[in-house]
Amino acid sequence: MTDTLTLSDVGFHFGDQDAPVKLTVFTNLACPHCANFFAENETDLFAAIDKKQVELILKPFDKPKEGLLKGNLVHLFLNYKDQEKMNKVILQLFKDQADWKKLSDNEIKTYLTENYGLSIQPDNTDYSLTIAGEAIHFDATSVPTVLLSRDGQTPQKITKDELKKELEAAIPVK
Questions:
Q1: Where do the domains of the chain lie, and which CATH numbers do they carry?
Q2: Which of these, 4, 24, 32, 14, lies nearest to 131 by C-alpha position?
Q3: Degrees (nearest 5) of the Cα angle 4, 140, 47?
Q4: InterPro entries in the record, alphabetically (predicted)?
Q5: What proportion of the chain, given as a percentage, has pLDDT over 90?
Q6: pLDDT (tens digit per residue) in 98-143
């Protein structure tokens, strides 16, 4: 990390990298609030992505909190080099979160391998450390934490209400 408030490209990118608005979300796949974030914003968020107004960057954030440890385990299996496949898998894992979170750690490993063809990715520890450093730098103490950057400006934390306004502005009501 440098002293400037910038973010690396590490994460899962949805949409056009040249979109004027970048939403970076520090997330954990086992976090029910993160799953709710997508359930509540999915329609408007993906409409804005489709219109090339917003790029969404998900940063899987490993947190040492008991309720998130299964998410940390799942993060080890995410292949950062296969964004297209992983983006679909991530969204599906949020939708099915209540089911797979009931599994033991070994059952989760089997579930990810059998259902998605995933295996542990050796580079993910480095990615996790990069994301943790960014989370500290941007004071992302909880998940989901949403940062917004417009036209390359320094990312700023935004609230749920501010996000709603941003998405409404990106997709005008007809």
A1: 12-160 (3.40.30.10)
A2: 24
A3: 95
A4: Thioredoxin-like_fold, Thioredoxin-like_sf
A5: 89
A6: 999 999 999 999 999 999 999 999 999 999 999 999 999 999 999 9
